[in-house]
């Protein structure tokens, strides 16, 4: 077995690989960018090498530097993880040329599957069912339009290279086709260096079901159950589970055998995933093959009891597969939720910021957390915004769903926006509990997945007041005279009662509270109501009784900003301080950057008359494009940035004079 490997990746997958390698007695070499100097994977590794500036193109995508570091450190093999160079044919070939084992398939297999159009031709020859569409080399616009008409609508435009939902557009009719094609090609070229597209019929109620395959160097291949990854946003997976609910044993077997045929058709070696679209009538169609370990591999590990990274290392060393097909057994049900820094209320816009407060559920045989960050780390614009993967297992799907709901309630983050509340609502929603899964799940159940707060506003304000006052008390010095009224940690006044004011800002609204303190309780006046509050704060845990209702919350108070966590929900407020001289950053009709990122395209110029909803600027953040549209009719009066510029969240991009619109 190898005695030293290099991990050409970062974040949670790098940490995940290091854990298994260390358990097997293998030393690990990490690489890190300027932004990751203090990252968790760097601290976990036996040694680490600086590789370049923060942008991935100058660090984690520098194949030449990684090869050089592997040789310098004496690493015998390189594990690419997923993303970055994991499906890069040139990198796999460079490893082979330098006598370094690439822990993955041969470069020829990556090349075969790297082009989705070529992959479909190979699958057709291997007898794997395909979705109707076009996957030819001719990319002339007229031909693509003709093939779109032939395929029928709705259809899916998909980049022939890469994955992760980039370079993909759903097109409902021919009127949308040209704009969608241009956007998908631009995004694909930016992400993968290849603008070529394929066209597929877009199934309206499909499920995304994928098969985990494994092949050794002797040509043996098996499948390790299936995963359902239907719940997606922006064509990227959000929830994954194994096994896929509701599949017959015959379908499982047929799909698994088709996946193995697909892998053996390209002489595959190692871990791979064959992805299928599964239709309501029970038919399934090949979608693509990912020639690497998948993000969601832990759910397969949880139900099979196998360590897939260990399998990768053994197969790369030349050992046979640890199990035969007949020996593969599954038990129970596993679900994975991807914890992202993003804003679900703003169409899942990526978020950046510092993990000011981070508390995760306790790990056990039922709960697993795969992460590459710790409290205080920054989620930056340079890399994927995934914070962690939360995985649960139990004997049945119903029990696993309950486990996930509970685990999400114990996952608490403050300092930046996350999708935890959305995930909690999604998993707890009745359609998910009843396994009504399609790739349109989020759009179909929008109202259920974006519910109102579980906390009544007045009650939340009372809890916030209790948390703030109790934390202030805990910070006060202890008096030498415990009997002195001046030493009491309340608002005692001689010969009078004093109800201290507290103004809390929630969103754009301000709420004025009056609080009368007693020795062991408070009276909180909110609007025309009075609440009797008993509160006890232990670190971040507040136990409270409000008018006889006992409940508890966790919270984090930082620079007068408070976040309370309650049953998967969050309540955010700020202790209001009057400020003067504040001027609005932008006048009416201006457009501000919704996140940190770079300007990809400016589709207007000064003097242009624009209409509401017209795309004016296209920004890129975390490898995804975002269209900034005109909020109203008007005339462009100023443009503040050029294509290629980096901009910060809130920066004014374009000014529109709405008074000059005709």
Which properties best describe this structure?
662 residues, alpha+beta, ligase, nucleotide-binding, 8-stranded antiparallel beta barrel
Any overview of this molecule?
The chain is an alpha+beta fold. Helices cover 26% and strands 33% of the residues. The protein contains 17 helices and 39 strands. The strands form 9 sheets. An 8-stranded antiparallel β-sheet has the order 14-13-10-11-12-15-22-20, with helices on both faces. It has an 8-stranded antiparallel β-barrel with strand order 24-25-26-27-28-29-30-31.
* Overall 3D form: globular
Termini separation comes to 74 Å
Rg is 27 Å
Strand order of the largest sheet: 14-13-10-11-12-15-22-20
Portion in beta strands = 25-35%
Count the beta strands. 39
Q: Taking all residues together, what is the mean pLDDT?
A: 91
Judged by helices, strands and strand pairing, the structural class is alpha+beta
Tally the helices: what do you get? 17
Short description:
With 662 residues, this protein is an alpha+beta fold. The chain contains 17 helices and 39 strands.
């Amino acid at each position: 077995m190898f005695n030293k490997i290099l991990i050409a990746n970062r974040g949670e997958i790098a940490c995940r690989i290091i854990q298994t390698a260390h358990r097997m007695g293998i030393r690990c070499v990490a690489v890190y960018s300027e932004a990751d100097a203090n990252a968790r994977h760097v601290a976990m590794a036996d040694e680490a090498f600086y590789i370049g500036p923060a942008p991935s193109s100058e660090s984690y995508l520098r194949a030449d530097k990684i090869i050089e570091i592997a040789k310098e450190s004496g690493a015998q093999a390189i594990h690419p993880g997923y993303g970055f160079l994991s499906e890069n044919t040139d990198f796999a070939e460079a490893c082979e040329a330098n006598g370094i084992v690439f822990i993955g398939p041969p470069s020829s297999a990556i090349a075969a599957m790297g082009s989705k159009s070529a992959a479909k031709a190979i699958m057709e020859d291997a007898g794997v069912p395909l979705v109707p569409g076009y996957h030819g080399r001719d990319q002339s616009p007229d031909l693509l339009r003709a093939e779109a008409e032939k395929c029928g609508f709705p259809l899916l435009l998909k980049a022939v290279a890469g994955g992760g939902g980039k370079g993909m557009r759903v097109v409902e009719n021919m009127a949308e086709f040209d704009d969608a094609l241009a956007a998908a090609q631009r995004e694909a070229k930016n992400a993968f260096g290849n603008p070529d597209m394929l066209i597929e019929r877009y199934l309206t109620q499909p499920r995304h079901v994928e098969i985990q395959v494994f092949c050794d160097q002797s040509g043996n291949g098996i499948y390790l159950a299936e995963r359902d990854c239907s719940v997606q946003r922006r064509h990227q997976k959000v929830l994954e589970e194994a096994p896929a609910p509701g599949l017959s044993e015959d379908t499982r077997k047929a799909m698994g055998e088709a996946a193995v045929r697909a892998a053996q058709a390209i002489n595959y070696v190692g871990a791979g995933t064959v992805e299928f679209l599964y239709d309501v009538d029970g038919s399934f169609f090949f979608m693509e093959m990912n020639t690497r370990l998948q993000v969601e591999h832990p759910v397969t590990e949880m139900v099979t009891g196998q360590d897939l990274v260990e399998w990768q290392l053994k197969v790369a060393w030349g050992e046979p597969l640890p199990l035969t097909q007949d020996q593969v057994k599954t038990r129970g049900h596993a679900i994975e939720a991807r914890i992202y820094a993003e804003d679900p209320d703003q169409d899942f816009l990526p978020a950046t910021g510092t993990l000011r407060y981070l508390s995760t559920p306790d790990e056990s045989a039922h709960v697993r957390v795969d992460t590459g960050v710790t409290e205080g780390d920054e989620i930056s614009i340079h890399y994927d915004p995934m914070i962690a993967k939360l995985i649960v297992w139990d004997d049945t799907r119903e029990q696993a769903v309950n486990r996930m709901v509970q685990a999400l309630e114990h996952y608490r983050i403050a300092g930046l926006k996350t999708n935890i509340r959305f995930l909690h609502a999604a998993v707890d929603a009745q359609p998910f509990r009843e396994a009504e899964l399609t790739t349109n799940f989020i759009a179909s159940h929008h109202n259920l997945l974006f519910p109102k707060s579980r906390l009544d506003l007045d009650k939340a304000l009372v809890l916030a007041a209790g948390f703030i006052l109790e934390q202030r008390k805990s910070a006060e010095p202890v008096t030498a005279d415990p009997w002195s009224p001046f030493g009491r940690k309340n608002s005692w006044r001689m010969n009078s009662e004093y109800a201290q004011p507290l103004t809390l800002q929630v969103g754009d609204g301000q709420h004025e509270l009056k609080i009368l303190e007693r020795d062991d309780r408070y009276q909180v006046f909110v609007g025309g109501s009075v609440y009797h509050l008993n509160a006890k704060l232990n670190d971040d845990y507040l136990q409270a009784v409000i008018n006889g209702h006992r409940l508890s919350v966790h919270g984090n108070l930082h620079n007068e900003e408070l976040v309370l966590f309650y049953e998967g929900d969050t309540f955010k407020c700020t202790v209001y301080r009057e400020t003067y001289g504040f001027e609005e950053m932008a006048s009416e009709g201006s457009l501000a950057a919704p996140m940190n990122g770079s300007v990809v395209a400016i589709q207007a110029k000064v003097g242009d008359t624009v209409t509401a909803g017209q795309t004016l600027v296209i920004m890129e953040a975390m490898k995804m494009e975002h269209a900034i549209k005109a909020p109203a009719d008007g005339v462009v009066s100023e443009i503040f940035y050029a294509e290629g510029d980096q901009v910060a969240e809130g920066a004014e991009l374009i000014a529109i004079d709405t008074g000059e619109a005709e």
